[in-house]
Design goal:
This protein has 167 residues and is of the alpha/beta class. The chain has one domain (3-162): CinA-like (Maf protein), CATH 3.90.950.20. It has helices at 3-19, 33-39, 57-64, 68-74, 79-91, 141-162; strands at residues 23-27, 48-53, 97-103, 118-125, 130-136. Strand 1 (23-27), helix 2 and strand 2 (48-53) form a beta-alpha-beta unit. Helix 1 runs parallel beside helix 6. The chain is globular, with a radius of gyration of 15 Å.
């Protein structure tokens, strides 16, 4: 595994463990890479609950409860879909935190409105908010996917760092 991803995943585990909190992941274009990164860390079973690989729209609807209308109106690669995925991961797990990743890793599948490298993310906290963001990454399929996992992990760490621990 990439050293930086391993460090980010280990730091995330330390932060979640200190808080007594759990993570769930909902992934599309990364195909479980984020889940693989966190489960590569020894002891991750104490803070990583589960991962959902929802590559198809049907999987997003069936496993995470993403509304068909969201997919029809906004598309699979959108902040609205990423939010629904993150909220669905929380609803279908015991996690306190979730992250969702959905994008176009390429080399095909892009459009002028959503070119290859477009990736939407969402980070959600149980009993808290849900933030979404869309990024545009350069490089080949592997590079887009790796940058997506890195961005998702960094986003979780930032949110954990600024959210007070429960008393």
């Amino acid at each position: 595994m990439n050293d930086e991803l391993e460090t980010l995943a280990a730091d995330l585990g330390t932060a979640l463990l200190a808080r007594g909190e759990w993570l769930a992941a909902a992934e599309s274009c990364t195909g479980g890479w984020l889940a693989q990164s966190v489960t590569a860390i020894a002891g991750s079973s104490a803070w990583f609950d589960r991962g959902f690989v929802t590559y198809s729209n049907e999987a997003k609807m069936d496993m995470l409860g993403v509304p068909a209308t969201t997919l029809e109106r906004h598309g699979a690669v959108s902040e609205a879909t990423a939010r629904a995925m993150a909220q669905g991961a929380l609803a279908h797990s015991r996690a306190n935190w979730s992250v969702a990743i959905t994008g176009i890793a390429g080399p095909s599948g892009g459009s002028p409105e959503k070119p290859v490298g477009t990736v939407s993310f969402a980070w959600a906290e149980k009993d808290g908010g849900c933030e979404a963001q869309t990024c545009h990454f350069a490089g080949d399929r592997a590079a887009v996917r790796e940058q997506s996992v890195r961005h998702a992990l960094r986003g979780l760490l930032r949110r954990l760092d600024t959210t007070p621990m429960m008393a």
